[in-house]
Amino acid sequence: xxxxxxxxxxxxxxxxxxxxxxxxxxxxxxxxxxxxxxxxxxxxxxxxxxxxxxxxxxxxxxxxxxxxxxxxxxxxxxxxxxxxxxxxxxxxxxxxxxxxxxxxxxxxxxxxxxxxxxxxxxxxxxxxxxxxxxxxxxxxxxxxxxxxxxxxxxxxxxxxxxxxxxxxxxxxxxxxxxxxxxxxxxxxxxxxxxxxxxxxxxxxxxxxxxxxxxxxxxxxxxxxxxxxxxxxxxxxxxxxxxxxxxxxxxxxxxxxxxxxxxxxxxxxxxxxxxxxxxxxxxxxxxxxxxxxxxxxxxxxxxxxxxxxxxxxxxxxxxxxxxxxxxxxxxxxxxxxxxxxxxxxxxxxxxxxxxxxxxxxxxxxxxxxxxxxxxxxxxxxxxxxxxxxxxxxxxxxxxxxxxxxxxxxxxxxxxxxxxxxxxxxxxxxxxxxxxxxxxxxxxxxxxxxxxxxxxxxxxxxxxxxxxxxxxxxxxxxxxxxxxxxxxxxxxxxxxxxxxxxxxxxxxxxxxxxxxxxxxxxxxxxxxxxxxxxxxxxxxxxxxxxxxxxxxxxxxxxxxxxxxxxxxxxxxxxxxxxxxxxxxxxxxxxxxxxxxxxxxxxxxxxxxxxxxxxxxxxxxxxxxxxxxxxxxxx
Amino acid sequence: xxxxxxxxxxxxxxxxxxxxxxxxxxxxxxxxxxxxxxxxxxxxxxxxxxxxxxxxxxxxxxxxxxxxxxxxxxxxxxxxxxxxxxxxxxxxxxxxxxxxxxxxxxxxxxxxxxxxxxxxxxxxxxxxxxxxxxxxxxxxxxxxxxxxxxxxxxxxxxxxxxxxxxxxxxxxxxxxxxxxxxxxxxxxxxxxxxxxxxxxxxxxxxxxxxxxxxxxxxxxxxxxxxxxxxxxxxxxxxxxxxxxxxxxxxxxxxxxxxxxxx
Lengths: 632, 262
Ligand code: SF4
Ligand code: SF4
Hints:
The complex is a heterodimer of chains A (about 625) and B (about 260).
Chain A: H1 14-41, H2 52-63, H3 66-69, H4 73-101, H5 108-138, H6 148-175, H7 184-187, H8 195-219, H9 227-236, H10 256-264, H11 270-274, H12 276-279, H13 286-299, H14 318-322, H15 329-343, H16 349-361, E1 381-382, H17 383-386, E2 392-395, H18 398-402, H19 404-419, E3 424-426, H20 436-440, H21 444-460, E4 465-468, H22 471-484, E5 490-493, H23 494-503, E6 516-519, H24 524-528, H25 533-540, E7 546-548, H26 578-589, E8 593-596, H27 599-611, E9 619-622, H28 623-631
Parallel strand pairs in A: 1-3, 2-3, 2-4, 4-5, 6-7, 6-8, 8-9
Helix pairs in contact in A: 1-8, 1-10, 2-9, 4-5, 5-6, 6-8, 9-10, 13-15, 19-27, 19-28, 23-25, 26-27
Chain B: E1 3-7, E2 9-11, E3 34-36, H1 38-54, E4 58-64, H2 69-78, E5 82-87, H3 96-107, E6 114-118, H4 129-137, E7 141-151, E8 154-160, E9 166-171, E10 175-179, H5 191-196, E11 203-205, H6 218-221, H7 245-258
Parallel strand pairs in B: 1-4, 1-6, 4-5, 5-11, 6-10, 7-10
Antiparallel strand pairs in B: 2-3, 7-8, 8-9
The structure holds iron/sulfur cluster (2 copies).
One iron/sulfur cluster binds next to α11 and α13 of chain A.
């Protein structure tokens, strides 16, 4: 006898099966189109481009679980087992259908190989599901939130797989073919019942298996299983170019990108685990905001969330770094803020005050336009007065201009530049806010105003190179200005300029400093702008310095709590502040000085140092101050 | 419920160094930003909330120069429907009666159920324009409202009295209410909101069109004459501590200790 398998052996009626399949597939497609129609609402004029790099990412992070494995190997293995097992079984079903209806080729050795592979796939699936159960209900991994849906989906898959093997067992016990050892797993179930009982109960279990499987297919678009479709898409679109729709043209806040990302979230909780706001016990979790929005947009639930929630996020970007499918919750939250700002009635009072000040006085700090107080006693060119072309434009930024502690950044940086003979100038009283705050809190009209004033000023004075104090200004100018207007200007952060001066040999340190220091990566310098090494290289250029890394460094750095408008929203703070958590990590390194590269970090860490009573043992310094100290 | 709102633009002095003009009659305003009078902002919000609940139309009126269109646009962005600006020319130096007269001559021809004004202005602080206007229109009024409720064509107003006491009064319609700060939380007005009303027409009225006897308004028509502005005299108990933050703090701590505060 030639090894092969008869489809629909002892099962049927076929017509009923076909009918039910049709129903199930129709429900699936109906659900799918509902998702797609929501995505399309956000599509606007932008198209999704074909990109090999993105396909590569889908293969790496989707099929091979790249990011799922990162940081949590057991999760990765679980996903790989389930994904591969499921995919093979699914493919197997298609191959069987092909063999049955179109071209019969599954017989003899080919069939045996086929049968054997499906056994392996089934075992992988079972192992994966077992692991999932353990992780969720035995290990009780903290970041996993257990809803009823999670249990049902898991149980469903288990039932489908087991009924499948059970059926195989029944068939084997009746047919008892000589090649049965190739179905080694199903064989385990073949001795439970006698040949006759097996034959009798087979149709019953066949229908159970069929109904479970068909309903599973139709449930995909209505449960978290939909991530099978949305998650690879989310990975694919991560490198698609961003665009900003001018406020007056946009109908709603979400673009197709955000809608797909919201849809794709699997509630894995990695973002919650890493989020600095959740970390200090603030009543906020990025995953939960996304879940709520998703239920609202995609499943029409009328869940109202506390509008205060969206103001917690510092937009630090840590969540994007760990999300297996590259969802940036902070961008989605930003869009929600834009909606609240437009509505106006629920904007937190302090935030509203800050924005009004920004609008009237072009800075978030004081109701005054005295931007250049920090210059006192220094010799600095005002580009808007001297009309000297070709100067490096030092964009001081609001915080550095107005906040007393942060003013030291501007003063020390200017002194270093002067010492090195760099020709530079500032925009003086005419310097506007760069627009970062407005953008981060969703005041997009104001962001547009700020962007236009900055660009016009740069163009009016023929500025080609800009260096900023704040990594926030840098990010906004470098990445968001070009989305509104074509510009031909290079933007740098001061740490890059310092590094350049050292490399050119203009800035050199004769004396050494014998101190232990650590470096705090500002979120916007590191994670957002990917500048990790410049400041470290500057520090290491000073002889004698011992640079110790903190537990969280570089892309894993911990936010100081000042970004995303949080600097001006003290009412959101809880018992422990993000900055305090960070300063304790600094303290744990045993360093005498923590160096940072951002006015917001400087202020936050300085405050935390005081509230934690570390004034004696620890100093907080800006990189410029530190360099100046080494020079003097 | 048709509402007429009277608002005013005032200089923002929250953090400014105020200097008095040489003639001693006003402060230097060149470096100051102009904003909506704080009390009026609450009045706008209250009007918009009433409109959102009961429908109707809001007409916002100001008396001021062209720059004061900003406060009208702001009110439009918050939800007002129409705006009228009475040009300041001829009204300069008016006392509260002069201002109320200007408003009266515009409002007397408009249909309305309620008039809302701020309880007072941040700059002059007379707190009289509202009540004078009610007198001229011969309608009842309530001042310092901290809560407004509308029930069967009646308005119940909770008024703030001395030392944390309140009273409820009932007014018929039409009537005038002056709004105390803190009655609500005024909504945020986004740049987009302001841009959206950029093109709305603002009706303009001039003194000549209003049939007001010119000798009743302006500096000449004033019964009250402002003689001299001056900063409050430094009291005896006041000590201005100067020096670096550390020195200031140290001195402050010392004083608190001396006076038995610690
Ligand atoms: S956003 Fe990403 S990391 Fe956060 S729960 Fe969703 S899938 Fe997981
Ligand atoms: S950006 Fe930072 S603060 Fe915001 S949700 Fe992500 S991790 Fe949390």
